[in-house]
Amino acid sequence: MANLSPAQPCEDEALSLDQVVFAYPDVPCVLNEITLNIQPGERLGVIGPNGAGKTTLFLTICGVLRPSSGAVRLFGKRVIPGEFRPEVGLVFQNPNDQLFCPSVWDDVAFGVENLGYGEAEVAERVTQTLEQLGILEYRDRPPHHLSGGQKRMVAIAGVLAMQPQLILYDEPSANLDLRSRRRLIEFLHQASQTLIIASHDLELILELCDRLILLDEGTVIADGSPVEIMSDRPLMEAHGLEKPSGLLSHPPR
Ligand SMILES: Nc1ncnc2c1ncn2[C@@H]1O[C@H](COP(=O)(O)OP(=O)(O)OP(=O)(O)O)[C@@H](O)[C@H]1O
């Protein structure tokens, strides 16, 4: 079941990681020779216990962190740490890390303005995105006055307005109530971009993703079908995870 396919870099891949290693000064080996290829349109879930390296993986893909060795490529072109790559967008785990402008409008416009678009194009993209997410009514509100769930939708809008082809969602359903979580899932179902979703919400991953990796201690332990990996109780429990209750009807392994 666990299929650790070797890297076959290809121009058409949305993302490829070739033996990527990363260490923080005080934590050695946070990413341990990660090799991964993702095709355009794929929806990849990333699960793993706390500290497995999910957020670090995302920051490395975006070029915020520099790998100690190995290569990251987005749409065939190597990621240079520190270089802005508009093809990829990251929705942070904590929206407070992402939102900083005096109004929702300014926050969502910020990224588009930095792409160099003129006022009319910026206004059109911001309006469209806020409408698409059903949050146009917040446009003049300060983001720090919004609830956690509302802030998350604004953070998503800020990324979507830049129209990236690959979007990384770090714990998108954290702190959402049932209705907001459902709305987010429905929204993500309709997404046309390539998605990578890191989450402890296994049911959300099951609903949305066509492929899953299980990460632990910076190592890809399994790569394959979400149902198959999550149904493997010994595998899940060995890595601090539980088989989701929605899969209990599957035969025990
Ligand atoms: N800025 C940092 N400096 C030093 N160590 C860090 C830093 N950020 C994360 N770490 C460490 O790197 C490891 C991986 O952390 P990371 O946040 O990537 O894990 P995660 O899988 O996203 O965890 P969680 O599920 O709790 O969000 C952990 O041991 C963590 O303590």
Automatic annotation (TrEMBL):
CDD domains recorded: ABC_cobalt_CbiO_domain1
PROSITE patterns recorded: ABC_TRANSPORTER_1, ABC_TRANSPORTER_2
Span of domain ABC transporter: 15-242
UniProt-recorded Gene Ontology molecular function terms: ATP binding
SUPFAM superfamilies per the UniProt record, alphabetical: P-loop containing nucleoside triphosphate hydrolases
Annotated keywords: ATP-binding, Nucleotide-binding, Transport
Database matches in SMART domains: AAA (SM00382)
One Pfam family this sequence matches: ABC_tran
PANTHER family: ENERGY-COUPLING FACTOR TRANSPORTER ATP-BINDING PROTEIN ECFA1, HEAVY METAL TRANSPORTER
Family note: Belongs to the ABC transporter superfamily.
Name of this protein: Energy-coupling factor ABC transporter ATP-binding protein
